[in-house]
Amino acid sequence: MDCERFDRIVLDYLYDELDELTAAAAKRHVEQCARCRGIVAGLRATREVGALPLVDPPEGLELRILDAERQVRERLPMKQRAGRAVSVLAGYAMRPQLAMAALLLLAIGSGLVFFRQRPNDRDTVSVTERGVAESDPEPLSVLPRGQKGEAAKAAAPAPGLAAAPLSPTARDAIAMRPSAPAATASAAPAEAREDSVYQAALGAYRAGRYREARQQFESVVAQGGADAARAAYYAALAAKGGEGCGSAATLFDQVSQHYPGTSSGYDATWEAAGCYETLGDTERARRSYQALLDEGSYSARARAALAQLDRADGPSEVAARKRAPAAFKEAKPAAGAGVGSVQQAPGSEPAAPKAAPPPQNAESAPKRQMKADPAF
Amino acid sequence: MAAVPGDASDETLMVRYQRGDRGAFTLLVRRHHRALYNFVLRQLRHQSLAEEITQEVFLRVVQSANEYKHESRFSTWAYAIARNLCVDQLRKAQHRRHPSLDQPLGPGDDARALADVVADPKPVGNAEHSAAASQMRATLIQAIETLPDDQREVYLLREVANLSFKEIAEVTAVPENTAKSRMRYALERLRSTLCDFEEYARALR
Predict the structure, then answer these.
(1) What residues of chain B, 145 to 164, have a C-beta less than 8 Å from chain A?
(2) pLDDT tens string A327-346
(3) CA atoms within 13 Å, Cβ hemisphere of A372
(4) What is the ipTM of this complex?
(5) Contact B25, B62 (CB under 8 A)
(6) Which among A29, A269, A336, B163 could bridge B167 via Cys, Cβ 3.0 to 4.6 Å?
(7) Domains of chain B as residue ranges with CATH
(8) Does domain A152-348 have CATH number 1.25.40.10?
(9) pTM to 2 decimal places
């Protein structure tokens, strides 16, 4: 090993991160080379003397965290709690004994079916034909790329399609609004009301009250109607403004999936791409940009963005990202602490800097702010 | 559900928590809250904010517990959350010129308060020696806190969080070599601050 190579691995050597062979070679080099010996000694002494003394966290922090955990869990949406219950059950269900039992039951069951079936059992045959809903949105997604746009545009006037709620919050929003069910009774006033909700939501969004805006937009989405697609897009934008790309990226993706071929869908795809880029997830960003390559108004921008990504992504960085474990990537959106909050309107308080503010903070936070900082 | 063994890995504890075992979460908090708090404290240089952010890290863990996958180390995940929250705070502080975040603490303040906090817990007979030791620690902490942001976070992730360079690269979203060279710069800077102290000369021998 020479000094140049040693320089490249000196930190791995210092922190024992080398494989045995390289470590042995490095050790031999250090023994022979006064220069490198000096470097290692200096770094080692710095590490030793520079070990940061840890201070104790304020008293009660642990308890406050556990208390907050309990309160957050109580407020978790049913879906997530059900998910946990399912995973517990699945843990039991995956036991081999149960699998064997299930197999046995299956064998007995299918045996019975075969026993019962005789050639002239079929006395009567009844056929029921069911019509396929004209405006079924599903077939759209299997159309080839080129036709997708026109087909979706043709389907766009059927507003009822858009009624699928996008998130648990949307459902909550409806539940909280007792007047909502009445909207089905008379169409015209309902429409007017929806429009005013939409306008109010826009106002809230422009004023930077993102959380409020998002709730209102989501209630418009839940009602369906002509504004649903646009409202869904704005709900995601509001999420981006309030909580950042971490939570908004998936919302944008949902919008582009729910409203393919609409301008809101394309806008959402574009925003999703930007968000993924901000979050450092270039693969998803690339995928979203690629989806826009055939879209007139976006194709040029998408192409430019892709080229930019190719330039920015040095080969080593791509490799580093590929090595990153999947779980970490998954967790990233949740961890992305409001990267998008930079884009908040200047001077406006962030609507929701934290997804779930620690409950007791309301009372204790001001007090703690006043407390002198003994660490300094 | 049976009691969680105290030596279970973080990842096992997290999986148990996903299945509804809250005792496992308690253990995770007990294990990590001190180091996480110190990491955030040195990043933001603000005690009550550090407390709040540490709490927030664990709340995010609770909220996205379902998305956690066993293959990733719990500490990498938790520090990625903490790091992002800190970056966000530092960015906000830049916009708002938050007084406690963007002004380096005065050396006088630092020495006075730090002496109380980090004074050697062992009883030392020689008062002069004790004073010199706390002086050095105060200098060290100030040197760490005034490292450039990108070097400081790598230094803290390595020395406080005990992450490998590969994991640091993941958390900070840079290539591994970049993380290492930031660490090298950080150590060089600290060395230039510490080399006048007697302890350094002693460690060098």
Answers:
(1) 156, 158-160, 164
(2) 444 444 444 443 333 344 44
(3) 6
(4) 0.81
(5) yes
(6) B163
(7) 1-103 (1.10.1740.10)
(8) yes
(9) 0.49
